[in-house]
Write a structure and sequence with these properties.
The complex is a heterodimer of chains A (50) and B (131). Chain A has one helix at 14-30. Chain A is mostly helical and 50 residues long. Classes of the chains: A mainly alpha (50), B mainly beta (131).
Chain lengths: 50, 131
């Protein structure tokens, strides 16, 4: 967490939580990722990666 | 009316789901303000957030009186590819399994209170298809 002058903490609105939850659930379901399963995240920068 | 189950579900990401455990088509929220969204094999129901505590979920089979103060969040069908219907929260890995049998099942989902995020969800399974 990064602070500083004017910094504040706010909860994520419920509607946004639901959207995120739907996306995550779909992702886990689509790729068969269960509770506790490891998975790798690769950021693809286009022409940077082979 | 037969009471099939009553559970306390932790609603991670402010939702619970009623689904075919063999499905792979979790529905997507458009605004996040819908009462419920669905695909053929999954119904996601909007609830209060998990920081506010667990949500009571009751599953009934057969004719059932409309709960006082409740709102219809969903009325339609869900398709089961196997024997069981799962009620819970996919992200949290919470699953309450109910033996219903494969095929289409007419489902009405009520939530209450009607004017605030749901703290109680009543799932009514009907013998007859929706009209």
């Amino acid at each position: 967490m990064q602070g500083g002058a004017g910094a504040r903490v706010e909860g994520v609105p419920l509607g946004e939580q639901r959207i995120q939850g739907g996306v995550l659930s779909s992702f886990y379901q689509k790729f068969g990722i269960g509770q506790g399963d490891p998975f790798q995240v690769v950021v693809n920068w286009g022409d940077v990666l082979p | 009316m037969t009471l099939l189950g009553r559970f306390q579900v932790l609603p991670l990401q402010a939702q619970i789901d009623i689904r075919d455990p063999g499905g792979s088509d979790y529905p997507q929220w458009e605004t996040g303000e819908e009462r419920a969204i669905a695909t053929a094999q999954c119904i996601a129901v909007a609830t209060q957030g998990d920081m506010d505590g667990r949500v009571a979920v009751e599953v009934r089979l057969g004719p059932s009186a409309v709960p006082s103060g409740a709102t219809v969040a969903f009325d339609g069908e869900v398709l089961l590819s196997g024997e069981e219907l799962v009620v819970g929260n996919y992200l949290g890995g919470e699953e309450h399994r109910l033996p219903l049998g494969p095929g289409w099942h007419h489902v009405t989902v009520y939530t209450q209170p009607s004017a605030a995020p749901a703290v109680e969800v009543i799932v009514v399974l009907h013998a007859e298809p929706p009209s």
